[in-house]
């Protein structure tokens, strides 16, 4: 995402203009030079007299160097060359003193753009204890609230019951959550630099180490667990599903992989399971490239070949990138290897727009998709295929859905939870809510009127002089 | 200038843009008023109108077999708005594309070969002095400790690891400095191609280049190179530390020389400096910090 931020300097610029105008006016219109001496000029009708001259120095040649039409270089390049030859900037400049350098290094910024408030990237429920866990990707925290928390309108925010935060936690840009329904352990996946799955005890709080971690190769963006088989499904953005024992840790290898060109996973975000029908659903933003078959490894593959190492595809096929519309791809939960999806939900009628998180209601046979840049939740029949329109869409200003990045379905209470990256809220709806529906409950981490810069993981910044704005890629 | 936690005045995002979650660099052409980014999933270079807003498609897309792209590497790129060229640092080579190219476009130049000493991860250009400036791994650095090979004088060079990473998606291993720097900044003639030696190389323990991923920009009228240095080695928790800073070198610097100035650290406010840009008119340096989730504005009249 790129966003532009304005420079508020109209007042300052106008101030400078006025000041300059005042000086000019003083010099031009007062009749006095800056020294206060009276200007030279005829007085009382007398003739002007030559008082003194100082001739200009003699110079050879024309006043200006004329660039002929046949010149092979531009005036800009010539001027640049002359500047370099006459003033090799940097090389001739004296290095600052160590004291000056040290002082400059500590110079504070004059302005800071930063969101001080938690921003919820993912959400999970602990129904055994009637709690909800939120992932805060802005301050690298996990926050636990009562499930029935509903921030009063007059309150600035809701205080969490417990917060897990600090350097020992290994929490960074975490984006997915799961809570063990039995013991309440919290599983949190890291999307970026740390490439870790971290697991915390249910009652963890403060700056605590996870009870275990599982190391990964790629950027994770989805977690789902089959409690019956005690298997954990981890999705990478690069388009692979690693299936592990639920208790996997450290360098444990997956039980199996689903990855490859036939899977049609493409910049994948979000995974959900339908254990009743033995299916798994993956959200895809649509861009991808092709890879050669991976080298021989030690992990059993669907077609009998053995592969090992940390997974991943083979070498990238040069220039094989492509853009497809967003999609939901469906596989069997026990799929292995480079397998084609059983179904693909894709097309203009689907209204999919950066599908970032998925949830399943096996009883009502419904599929919920959080569309990040669609600012919507679209609901499909669980057996939807092809260019299928949603059966319901939650969207609109009253719904408070804004850059939804996490979604979870509570079958026990027939409720749908959405974490909104764009406005410091998580919102709860009845399962069948549609249109611009007001949430049944809202948990806020900041006042409603406080804007969210959506400044997560800011990477590159560019100053745009044409519009006096900052472009920031996040 | 925006301060605090304002809402963005516009946002380019959505299905039509073709973006992934990994925008690791972008450029802006003030003459053509265009924004250009790399796209890692689709192995593409996307260009947008400078006033783009919302869910909009790029106006040009470079992608296809002729591009020779099997990766966009670190995702960094540079744009020369004078000569209309785009530069991609890709480990052991730098590929150059025509800025106005669209579709399946071959690179117009390649800088590659053992004499280049490239383990390229970042790039910028100085259009006044006609220079190509490349940051990346220092081939003299040898990792030690867990996973990094070991022993005195042994270990795997970071450059090798970076190149291996682009080829096989292997993450560089943890290592420690051994009297030199993990990173380096190389200065080439802008039109250098083939197996060409750099004009100058900034590397060594005095440079503070303790990381290989250095996003850069220049202020060409005074020959300054600004480099955002993370400040930590791979493997450290969160890969952030108060050793992060933005260093300022001269295009004439060579060898084991410290930065002329440092901004925001070391031991300052920065934790994970990622991006840097300048506004010469207001004598301001802008820095993004990934760990802090912030954009800082530093006033530095000394540099402009």
Q: Could you walk me through the main structural features you see in this protein, from its secondary elements to its overall organization?
A:
- The complex is a heterodimer of chains A (474) and B (304).
- Chain A is built from 3 helices and 32 strands.
- With 474 residues, chain A is mainly beta.
- Chain A has a single domain (120-464), classed as YVTN repeat-like/Quinoprotein amine dehydrogenase (Methylamine Dehydrogenase, Chain H, 7 Propeller).
- In chain A, a hairpin with a 4-residue loop joins strand 4 and strand 5 (141-146).
- Chain A is globular.
- Mean pLDDT of chain A is 82; it is low at 7-48, 59-73, 76-88 and 302-312.
- In chain B, strands 2-3-4-5 form a 4-stranded antiparallel beta sheet, with no helix packed on it. A 4-stranded antiparallel beta sheet of chain B has the order 6-7-8-9, with no helix packed on it. Chain B has a 4-stranded antiparallel beta sheet with strand order 10-11-12-13.
- Chain B is mainly beta and 304 residues long.
- Chain B has a domain at 113-303.
- Chains A and B meet through strand 1, helix 2, helix 3, strand 2 and strand 17 of A and strand 1, strand 2, strand 3, strand 17 and strand 18 of B.
- Strand 1 of chain A pairs antiparallel with strand 1 (10-12) of chain B.
Give me the secondary-structure topology:
The complex is a heterodimer of chains A (474) and B (304).
Chain A: E1 2-6, H1 10-29, H2 75-86, H3 98-105, E2 111-114, E3 120-126, E4 131-136, E5 141-146, E6 162-165, E7 174-179, E8 186-190, E9 196-200, E10 212-215, E11 220-226, E12 231-236, E13 240-245, E14 256-259, E15 268-274, E16 279-284, E17 287-288, E18 299-300, E19 306-307, E20 322-323, E21 327-332, E22 343-346, E23 355-361, E24 366-371, E25 376-381, E26 392-395, E27 404-410, E28 415-420, E29 425-430, E30 441-444, E31 461-464, E32 469-473
Antiparallel strand pairs in A: 1-32, 3-4, 4-5, 5-6, 7-8, 8-9, 9-10, 11-12, 12-13, 13-14, 15-16, 16-21, 17-20, 18-19, 21-22, 23-24, 24-25, 25-26, 27-28, 28-29, 29-30, 31-32
Chain B: E1 10-12, E2 26-29, E3 34-39, E4 44-49, E5 60-62, E6 78-80, E7 85-90, E8 93-98, E9 109-112, E10 120-126, E11 131-137, H1 158-168, E12 183-189, E13 200-202, E14 214-219, E15 224-229, E16 245-250, E17 261-263, E18 273-279, E19 284-289, E20 294-299
């Amino acid at each position: 995402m790129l966003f532009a931020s304005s420079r508020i300097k109209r007042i300052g610029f106008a101030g400078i203009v006025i000041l300059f105008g005042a000086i000019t006016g003083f010099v031009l219109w007062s009749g006095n030079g800056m020294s206060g001496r009276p200007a030279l000029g005829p007085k009382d009708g007398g003739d002007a007299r030559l008082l003194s001259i100082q001739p200009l120095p003699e110079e050879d040649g024309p006043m200006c160097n004329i660039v002929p039409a046949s010149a092979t270089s531009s005036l800009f390049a010539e001027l640049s060359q002359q500047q370099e030859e006459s003033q090799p900037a940097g090389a001739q400049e004296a290095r600052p003193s160590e004291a000056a350098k040290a002082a400059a290094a500590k110079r504070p910024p004059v302005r800071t753009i930063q969101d001080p408030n938690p921003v919820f990237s993912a959400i999970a429920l602990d129904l055994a204890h009637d709690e909800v866990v939120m992932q805060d990707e802005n301050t690298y925290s996990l926050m636990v609230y009562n499930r029935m928390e509903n921030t009063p309108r007059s309150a600035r925010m809701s205080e969490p019951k417990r917060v897990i935060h600090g350097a020992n936690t290994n929490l960074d840009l975490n984006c997915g959550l799961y809570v063990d329904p039995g013991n309440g352990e919290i599983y949190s996946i890291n999307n970026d630099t740390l490439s870790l799955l971290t697991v915390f005890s249910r009652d963890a709080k403060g700056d605590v180490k996870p009870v275990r971690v599982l190391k990964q190769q790629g950027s994770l963006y989805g977690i789902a667990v089959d409690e019956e088989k005690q298997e954990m499904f981890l999705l990478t953005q690069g388009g692979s599903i690693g299936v592990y024992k639920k208790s996997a840790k450290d360098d444990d290898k997956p039980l199996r992989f689903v990855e490859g060109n036939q899977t049609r996973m493409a910049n994948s975000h979000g995974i959900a399971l339908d254990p009743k029908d033995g299916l798994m659903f993956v959200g895809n933003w649509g861009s991808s490239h092709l890879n050669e078959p991976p080298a021989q490894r030690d992990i059993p593959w669907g077609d009998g070949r053995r592969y090992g190492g940390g997974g991943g595809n083979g070498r990238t096929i040069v220039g094989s990138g492509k853009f497809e519309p967003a999609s939901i791809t469906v596989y069997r939960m026990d799929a292995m290897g480079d397998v084609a999806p059983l179904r693909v939900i894709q097309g203009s009628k689907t209204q999919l727009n950066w599908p970032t998180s998925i949830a399943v209601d096996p009883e009502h046979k419904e599929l919920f998709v959080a569309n990040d840049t669609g600012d919507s939740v679209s609901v499909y029949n669980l057996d939807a295929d092809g260019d299928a329109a949603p059966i319901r869409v939650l969207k609109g200003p009253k719904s408070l859905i804004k850059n939804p990045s996490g979604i979870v379905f509570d079958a026990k209470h027939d409720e749908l939870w959405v974490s909104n990256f764009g406005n410091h809220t998580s919102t709860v709806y009845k399962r069948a809510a549609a249109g611009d529906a007001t949430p049944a409950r809202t948990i806020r981490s900041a006042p409603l009127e406080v804007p969210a810069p959506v400044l997560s993981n800011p990477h590159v910044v560019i100053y745009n002089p044409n519009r006096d704005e900052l472009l920031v890629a996040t | 200038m925006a301060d605090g936690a304002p809402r963005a005045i516009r946002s380019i995002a959505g299905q039509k843009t073709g973006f992934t979650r990994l925008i690791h660099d972008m450029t802006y052409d003030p003459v053509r008023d265009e924004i250009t980014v790399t796209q890692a999933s689709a192995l593409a270079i996307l260009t947008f109108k400078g006033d783009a807003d919302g869910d909009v498609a790029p106006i040009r897309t470079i992608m296809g077999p002729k591009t020779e792209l099997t990766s966009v590497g670190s995702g960094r790129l540079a744009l020369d708005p004078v000569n209309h060229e785009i530069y991609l640092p890709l480990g052991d080579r730098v590929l150059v594309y025509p800025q106005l190219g669209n579709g399946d476009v071959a690179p117009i130049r390649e800088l590659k070969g053992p004499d280049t000493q490239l383990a390229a991860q970042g790039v910028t250009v100085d259009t006044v002095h006609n220079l190509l400036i490349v940051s990346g791994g220092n081939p003299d650095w040898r990792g030690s400790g867990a996973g990094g090979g070991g022993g005195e004088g042994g270990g795997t060079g970071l450059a090798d690891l970076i190149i291996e990473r682009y080829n096989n998606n292997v993450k560089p291993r943890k290592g420690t400095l051994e009297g030199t720097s993990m990173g380096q900044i190389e200065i080439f003639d802008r039109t250098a191609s083939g197996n060409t030696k750099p004009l100058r190389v900034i590397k060594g323990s005095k440079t503070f280049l303790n990381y290989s991923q250095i996003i850069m920009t220049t202020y060409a009228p005074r020959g300054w190179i600004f480099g955002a240095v993370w400040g930590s080695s791979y493997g450290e928790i969160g890969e952030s530390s108060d050793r992060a800073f933005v260093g300022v070198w001269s295009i004439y610097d060579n060898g084991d020389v410290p930065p002329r100035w440092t901004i925001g650290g070391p031991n300052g406010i920065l934790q994970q400096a990622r991006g840097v840009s300048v506004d010469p008119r207001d004598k301001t340096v802008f820095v993004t910090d990934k760990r802090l989730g912030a954009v800082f504005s530093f006033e530095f009249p000394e540099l402009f």
